[in-house]
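Try it yourself: sequence plus arginine, in.
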Amino acid sequence: MVLAYSGGLDTTVAIRWLAENFGAEVITVTVDVGQEEDFAEVERRAYAAGAARHYTIDAKKEFAEEYIARAVLMNAMYEGKYPLGTALARPLIVAKVVEAARREGADAIAHGSTSKGNDQVRFDVTAMALAPDLKVIAPARIWGMNREQEVEYARRRGIPVPEAHKKYSIDENLWTRSIESGPVDDQALEPPEDAFKWTTPPEKAPAQPTYVEIGFTGGLPTSINGERLDLPSIVKALNAIGGANGVGRIDHIESRLVGFKSREVYEAPAAVILYEAHRDLEKLVLTPRELRFKHNVLDPTWADLVYQGLWAEPLREELEAAARGMEKWATGWVKVKLYKGSAQVVGRDSPYGTYSREIADYAAGWYPSDEEARGFIEMWSLHTLTALRKRKNI
Ligand code: ARG
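Structure, out:
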């Protein structure tokens, strides 16, 4: 059996529990998607808990290029607020676990999700799509232990477990740091300062703004301040610069796919900056029809699918294909001003931009005549005025 292993309490206990309850030889896989983690220590812990073999798989580049890149193209913000970090990483983790299962000739895979979260759905659905013959087991849905009982279970078997009394439940990757439970479960309370790690409190951020110029090619970020960088480096750089300016703190009441609302807190400076910049560039280059269709239909539909565990849904790729047709034109640069928690676009340009200063200028240049303007307005308003006359008899 191959277990997706985070190194946390649940999955550490799961190694032993799966061996005891399924008679399984448990192989652990830890996928590096950019979380800050001591992977050598995670490996030691896996073996101490009884893993037969352990793999640490560096998937940072793939996470950036195949998942974050699509999120940027689709401005993926669930309910307008959550940049989907956790949701995006799950299908990739499943793919890596399935690969390991094939290599090892395993007949089942396992994960640490509980029955209250979204992650179980993302994990199970993606696994069923990629490998319908593999059984999927979620020990935490079966064993009925709470955290104290898990610690006790491990103690009795001499298994060293990490941080038994963690204040928050954290899920971290290159794109987003997700903070759940403990003090943030009180929806009325401002998240305590110790919930945050990537971001300076806005009030303590530098008194002077920082400007970043982001270059885009075909809808994807390709440079910062004129320097060409690969996507993982761009994301890391923007997380650092944004975080230092207090940008990227998100407080969200979230509609979970499992039927209830939760209060979620996120840190995602690069995501906030990139979405802001990318959407602005789209406004410059897309026709108003393309813009509305993308921002009102394609983008939120894509975000919903990914949030709801349906990475495997054919529509996801079809939406991307539609977006890619428009994104050809999203080449140019956007200047963003970072200042005490805000990220504001203050300038942009593109060879495909359809803004013309000459046309827009109030003081000079092209002006329609009075007659032209009247003719246009008359025809423009005809539907509305005709309906009003019919309805109100005027
Ligand atoms: N609510 C977010 C989501 O469903 C974040 C989940 C965080 N997961 C965690 N194990 N702490 O995508």
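One thing you can check immediately is this: The CA atoms of residues 96 and 177 lie 21 Å apart.
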